[in-house]
Queue: 2 jobs
Job 1
Amino acid sequence: SKIAEAEKAKKKKEKRPELLVPPLTDFADLRTKYKLSKRVYANILAQGYLTPTEVQMGALPVFMNRELELEGVEKDSPIDLITCAPTGSGKTLAYIVPVLNQLLAQKTTDKTKGVRAVILAPTKELVGQIVYETKKLAKGTGLKVSQMKKGSQPMSATAAAAGASSDSTSTEPVIKSDILVSTPLVLLHALESAPTLMTGIQHLVLDEADVLLDELFRTQTLGVWRQLRSTSPSLRASLWSATISSSTEQLAITELSLTAPPPSILRLI
Ligand code: ADP
Ligand code: MG
């Protein structure tokens, strides 16, 4: 029966859609094929990056273009992505650029919408680095990026929980940022004291996902996911890491509901 089970597991694995997307071999293709904003493209070039790294080649076409028809993934359906690539391989750009582009495409509607993308990372240092990288790529776009700070939040969060009715309009977001980067615990505390702090989140990025879902951080990370999901039902998650253990993968499927369509796993390691 063990053999049968292994056979079954293998079949299940085989069913997962293969991402048959041509790799992005030149950043210029982001402009011509994937409608990347001129400004973000210029910001990439300003970094001196000449060619996409391997993970960028693989992940950018998938993550950039949701209209793309993928084998086994319905057209226009959101794509969940689990991306595995070594440390130092340029994963940050691979998730930031598509997120920036997605947000820029919606910019015309309402600039005061509040936070639309959340990036979680396990340490304060990493959060700082992500903010730094994101700011460079978002320069001149009008998109605001900020770090969720421990000390600064509780006051406005309390105000939000209390309705903050006196001198502000009810539609005004508490956090005036398009992209928020945080460690799980800081964000979880803020969300627990003000559950409706963020209601329009479209994307949750788990950077160093294996760490965010290990025993130490799991409760906090999943807590953030549940809180955000409850007020932003169309929220999608993507996982980025140097390693994804099978238990992390399982957790992503059962807890983060990366099931419909099945998550696409891009392995470059
Ligand atoms: P990871 O998250 O996969 O560990 P990072 O996103 O932190 O990697 O990127 C590692 C380094 O590579 C950073 O200093 C970044 O600026 C640089 N980098 C990213 N993309 C490119 C590229 N296409 N060409 C050259 N350097 C790049
Ligand atoms: Mg990284």
Note: DSSP finds eleven helices and seven strands in the chain.
Job 2
Amino acid sequence: GRSWSQIGDLDDSAAGRSVLIRGAAQAIRPVSKKMAFVVLRQSMSTVQCVLVASADAGVSTQMVRFATAFSKESIVDVEGVVSLPKEPLKATTQQVEIQVRKIYCINRAIPTLPINLEDAARSEADFEKAELAGEKLVRVGQDTRLNYRAIDLRTPSNQAVFRIQCQVENKFREFLLSKDFVGIHTPKLISGSSEGGAAVFKLLYNGQPACLAQSPQLYKQMAICGGFERVFEVGPVFRAENSNTHRHLCEFVGLDAEMEIKEHYFEYLDKTLKLPYEEGVQMLKEAGTEIEPMGDLNTEAEKKLGRLVREKYNTDFFILYRYPLAVRPFYTMPCYDNPAYTNSFDVFIRGEEIISGAQRIHTPELLAKRATECGIDVSTISAYIESFSYGAPPHGGFGVGLERVVMLFCALNNIRKTSMFPRDPQRLVP
Ligand code: 4AD
């Protein structure tokens, strides 16, 4: 085959070289009958291609006219020679130009796209600047973006978000593999709810009532029972959320880990702020927010605690541990010294939960009792409970929401921005 160049690789050292590139026509600017510019884009890189009608270069005025008729975002091939511009280029990422010899339209985009990429790519700072200058810019709403996601994804910030997401997932995997965890895959079509509660998608499995897994929880524990000392899973998780929030999806990617435990390791986390739940409740109380002693923190209380922790301990990152029994899932191990509390924790970034974990109950009797107390029909999870009667080691683990973590790392305000094709209570397409 022929040798194709990547736009991102084109720098000064390529000057004088003949190249062949394929990209999306991000901008097309006719200058005169004899001259035009076409900016080509590949993911986050752009380069300016210059068409000048000249017999030497084998470029005709018809060819210049032909290229200026391309619709924006059409896929275009260019053969040309890399040159250095006379002045620094402001509109492209690459500081070289391509002197076009040949240009082909491989697949045209419709003449008017439903969203304009330039509008979609604008930052909040652009809007502020425009406002000061008395200009009016088009704001592309989140819903419109999601409706036309195949266009919206082309903005530099979206290209960055999903590359970051890939790296976060990769780091999770790499780290756990380096600690001898084994990656597993557990079923997503299951017979009973794994986290309890109403947030479960019900379906018929060959006529039998079933549901979509709310987490790999029960099966990752059964893998521990099955002799795998340390396991992890990266996979889809389904929650039939019925409220629209900035941080809940109906389908997200769960990063889960589960491991045997032999002793208490908590004290090894010396650099991370660890706050007992009771202390968090006390801090909130002193700041005027009353929490029911055995109740849960709502979103607002979590946010407020995040601010209080920031003021008192100067950190955005902390672990809240020893949650009340009543607010944790049935499989969570009660504290030995006070069974009204649990050996459990959540990890927060800026007052928003990203990780949830705990030691698990490893005796079948207590597990069945807790399930019943939590209103779960034990017959729907009998195989899970029985697994703990065949010899099961003490164990614990945690789950992280990939989209949630990326949203908070990137300081984005909506989880839909970190899900490529989000599923929320209203959205099933695209
Ligand atoms: O807190 P959750 O429900 O915990 C579990 O699923 C347990 N099985 C984990 C464990 O091993 N103990 O979910 C874990 C994480 C949350 O911390 C949050 O980051 C994310 O998943 N999460 C959601 N992300 C997006 N949309 C939702 N509806 C989410 N619900 C939870």
Note: Residues 195, 215, 217, 239, 241, 248-249, 252, 256, 353-358, 397-401, 403-404, 415 surround 4AD (CB under 6 Å).
